[in-house]
Amino acid sequence: MNATVEQQYDALKKRMERATSKVGRRVEEIHVIAVTKYVSIQTANEAIKAGISHIGENRLEGLLEKKAVIGDGATWHFIGSLQSRKAKDVIGHISVLHSLDRLSLAKEVQKRLVEREKTLDCFVQVNVSGETSKSGLAPEEVDSFIMALAEYDRIRVIGLMTMAPYAENAEETRPHFKALKQLQQRIADKEYVHAPCTELSMGMSNDFEVAVEEGATYIRIGTILVGNEQVSE
Ligand SMILES: *Cc1c(COP(=O)(O)O)cnc(C)c1O
Q: Measured in angstroms, how far is the CA atom of residue 193 from the centroid of ligand 1?
């Protein structure tokens, strides 16, 4: 029999405990986002029952489908790249956007937030590895991008997000997470009102322990937590 989400969450917490204790952090400093893009509404519901309060989706359709059932029982995160034309549909349904990566998107998001009289917590996505298949800003573009975001007063930059390239040996991801942490700290030190930039969204099933050791405050976990129903289990 397959492990339940609850069992997998317990196993994840144990691994988080080991990783945090190695570097003198506490598990409570880290928010676990269950990434439900590969799984059914029912499985997403199991995550909520297991006590997980953050759900991440990377497509509008998946977000709407799950939110229709789970509703405000979770905090909703949009973690996928967002096409500007879909922003108007996504914005009303999420608390956090992890993939802000261009001013044209910021402009569209701002417009939709003004209409709704809302503000939105956002992560700026950074491509720290330079891998061409990954989206996000180059590290050297981040400072000027964040300065330019001051113009969009409905957007609050709470931190930086990255996806490390997949590595057989997770240790290889460490330099990327370290680089993101340094960049985040440098921006936080500027104390921008619109960009406190205190958070780090980094770490997935394959590399979250390294990300936690390097300072992640949000980890985005799919496969090892809720499973991946697209591959045989
Ligand atoms: C799919 C996805 C995840 C989760 O990936 P797993 O390897 O299944 O944990 C995390 N972040 C983003 C942006 C994703 O698209």
A: 30
